[in-house]
Amino acid sequence: MNEKLYDAAEKGKRLLSSGGFDFAEVRLSAGGGTTISLSGENTEAVVSGEAVAGSVRVLKNGSWGFATFNDLSSLERFFRSAVNSASIVIPREKTSIVRAKPFTGRFTTQVQRDFSSVSVDEKFEQLSSYNRILRSSQSIQTTRANYRDSNSLYVYMNSEGSFLEYDRSYCGIALSSVAKKGSVIQPYGESISGYAGYEITEKREALAEKVVKTASDMLDAEPVEGGRYNVILDPKLSGVFIHEAFGHLSEADFVHENPSMRDIMVIGREFGPPELNVIDDGNIESIAGYIPFDDEGIIPSKTYLIKNGTLSGRLHSRETANKMGEETTGNARSMGVMKQPIVRMTNTYIENGQHSRDDIFNALDDGLYAVSFIGGQTNLEMFTFTAAYGYRVKNGKPGKMFRDIILSGNVFTTLKNIAMIGNDCEMFGGLGGCGKGGQGPLPVTLGGPHMLVNDVLVGGGK
Amino acid sequence: MIDRITKAFPAGTKWFDIFHVEGKSTPVKFRNNRLHSLTENENSGTGVRINVNGRTGFSSTNDDTGIERIAGLAASLSPFGDIESFALPSDTRSAFDPYDPAIENFNLQSEIKGCDTAIDELTRRFPGVMVDMGITSSTGSMRLMNSAGVDISYRESYYSASISATLVLPDGTRIETWEGESHTRPVEFSSMISVVADKLEKAMTVCKIESGLYPVILPPSAFGSLLGLVISGFSAVPVWKGISPMAGKQETRVFNEALTIRDNPLIEGSPYSIPFDAEGVNVAEKFLIRKGVVETFIADLKYAERLGIAPTGNASRGYSSLPGPSFTGIEADSGQEHHESMISSVKKGIIAHQFIGLGQSNTITGDFSASMDLAYLVENGKITGRVKDCMISGNIIELLAGEIALSSDRERKGSSVLPWLWIPAVNIVT
Q: Are strands A104-108 and A222-223 parallel, antiparallel or unpaired?
């Protein structure tokens, strides 16, 4: 398949230099992967797949034309189609973009153990061993153990002369157990993935043991009573919080043409305590949100979204950067070459603060410790995210376990209510990812340290 | 195609099926009040499933020249599969194509003009509003071939129009609402615009409420979101795994007798209607819940065999994945009273349109807790403003078992046809 891709790339170079448009780019990919899914005592799926894909995006007269296809031999036809689409209507307001100098380069995921050289037997056996651990408690009703690997060659080229290749290997596992007692059913899962080889999935018995123990323990936990609480977030929840509550707000496509949002998201405006620093950085290799270049051919920056509590930057595509008169940040990403790039996060995290974990617990007389996460969503003013479980904290000591801790709040108020930031930042990725604009799950990493947030609304009955 | 593929199959092959899809679409996107992009998509792909010595393997490609290769790969993966003894259908019938020739009347220029008119209307009424719109017209086909002699296909057409409007008030209050239409042919979408405008208008005033129990009215799309938590338990997969609260409840009254829910693959005009399922099983309407009583679980061939039931024609798949049970169209019976009349009889209650975070928690047993994204306060039968910064929670199975009322009017949203739902007391936390 790679031969077809390189043949198309040669055609692409000629087409991109042919002119007749303001800007154009061609993206091509070819690859394949293996998925293994086990559940309880059964095999759900052992499947392989391969795919080729191509797209052309053309900016002409202030309008984008986009064409996607899987017949790479017909690139010329789709190139013409994208040019035609961009020419059909003269928009009332024209789109323009930041120009960049051409980049060339070839990037390859650094792997210790190439998964394509690992037999399906070995992958199956390893996953089965994790699945046996997931089933190892009598309270477990069912399990799911998923393994996924994919390798693809991705080529990005544009009319500025950029030609970038990325031989990308992505691999990971997702493990979950569902415990049941009477009518109570409690799932719990963990996932780990990244741009890596097979090694990322090896020696994960401890992860499987954590999953089965947590799911079993949660059977005896009660739902938490609804109300307002001071809450300690664990590093994973801190990461979800900053991704949901602020990361999406920092994506400039939400801001750039909305005068009201621009008035709110003013650089230099105070959003949180001076201890708060929030960063998006696509350069951190191997973890899930790593990109050597974005899907507009821009090398990613380390962008401070919040520095010392004040708004310091935001995430841009070429289009939003142009609109706001700011620098590109390399955050235009798409779910595969058949989707248009939109502004997305990469690796987003809260930098370490000054407090130890013990300091933070000692400062909480009465509240909740919320641990791990199931999911989250924001509408850019309000957010909701769900901790997998948690504990009541009295006088700094975690006590009774609770489940179904669903935290909600106003983004701006909650950021200001951050009272203490820990010094134990951890990063998390997984086989899931972030969804936006119909594109997901896009691999991202999120992270942070333990953090105390005051006055958080928690859903639930009285 | 079959000849090329079967050459790659080993001795011991019991059965196989080949699933091929292809399609073309032309999405138009308006972002932030202006035309942003026009797209042409053209894609195809093929999946091969093969059962060798009773075990099933699968592989897929979207490269036409790779079909023999993936057929061999599918066979090589079969030893890892579970034993599956079911037979593939041999009597697949196609009564109709979910295709309307009127899709060919799709006119890009007039659709763009329609979007411009809609955006003009909304920006005139709501200065500062940001409108995104999407119009898509697509056609495609699906072909299924199997070792039992089936070689059958259908054409499909799809049209959708969607609109999302966002207003940010000076204090940072954000109002975002959306509407969508889908059909097998282009349809007039101007009615969406007035619905969006009406929702924005009513959200301009924010009302404060105290925590407590309130009557809640859910419009069809919101009812559908909550109903989704319930009907996911009617899939044979969680039933067989023992994690569905509906397991063992067949022929038992679990819900209020006002509730009748059908899985209907033949909803008129719905682009989600199908003549047969993705494994070639013939489809039919079936009751999931009849007058409050749990009746049918949906299954594909694999889970029908596991549960010891007849396949229900609910297999769904993309070309790159194995089939799995999936609902076709969800239809709820209507009630006695028009939704406007239901609202007018509420003394103090809530109309909940949109949630944040619904389904992002452990909802297996029907528990839910979500932030109110767009909800209105009703006082003495009139909407008095928007309620926000509050959460709604409860157990939807318990709520649907208690007192409820369904409106006499229904709407189709996507693949569902649902009425409005009234519940007398739901917990709200502020």
A: unpaired
* Selection from A304, A63, A43 nearest residue B30 by Cα: A63
Min distance A320 CA to chain B CA atoms (Å): 12
Q: Which of A386, A6, A364, A175 lies closest to B371, judged by CA?
A: A386
B2 pLDDT above the threshold of 90: no
| Mean pLDDT across A301-316 | 97
Contact A226 B388 (CB under 8 A): no
Cβ separation of B40 and A88 shorter than 8 Å? no
A260 band by pLDDT with thresholds 50, 70 and 90: confident
Q: Which residue has the tokens 């889970």?
A: B303
User: Which of A135-144, B1-10, B273-282 bottoms out in mean pLDDT, i.e. has the lowest?
Assistant: B1-10
For residue range A438-456, list pLDDT tens digits in order.
888 999 999 999 999 999 9
- The arrangement of strands across the sheet holding A426-428 comes to A310-311, A302-307, A278-281, A347-350, A445-448, A426-428
Residues of A in contact with B206 (CB under 8 A): none
Residue B65 contacts by C-beta under 8 Å, 6 or more apart in sequence?
none
User: Quick check: helix, strand or coil at residue A110?
Assistant: coil
* A248, A378 Cβ separation under 8 angstroms: yes
Partner residue facing A257 (CB), from B32, B42, B43: B32
List the single residue in A with minimal CA-CA distance to B374. Answer: A379
Of the candidates B236, B319, B341, B351, the one whose C-alpha atom is nearest the C-alpha of residue B61 is B319
Does residue A277 sit in helix, strand or coil?
Answer: coil
Structure token pair of residue A209: 């043991």
A385 touches chain B (CB under 8 A): yes
Distance from the Cα of B130 to chain A's closest Cα (Å) equals: 7
Q: To the nearest whole number, what is the mean pLDDT of chain B? A: 95
* B151-B152-B156 Cα angle (round to 5): 150
Mean pLDDT of the A170-190 span: 94
Bridge partners of residue A393, in order along the sequence? A367, A398
Rounded distance between C-alpha atoms, residue B412 and residue B426, angstroms: 25
* Chain A residues touching residue B32 (CB < 8 angstroms): 256-258
Strands (E), A89-213: 104-108, 140-158, 163-181, 184-194
pLDDT, tens digit, for every residue of B357-366?
887 778 888 9
pLDDT at residue A462 greater than cutoff 60: no
Whether A264 sits inside 8 A of B172 (CB atoms) is: yes
Residue B391 to residues A220, B55, B361, Cα–Cα distance (Å): 25, 48, 14
CA proximity to B371, closest of A387, A458, A414, A384: A384
Query: Could you say which DSSP state residue A288 is in?
Result: T
Query: DSSP of B95-115, one letter per residue?
Result: ---S--GGGGG--HHHHHHHH
Section A237-252 average pLDDT: 91
B16: closest CA of chain A, how far (Å): 15
What is the per-residue pLDDT for A460? 66
For B110, how many CA atoms within 13 A lie in the half-sphere containing its CB? 8
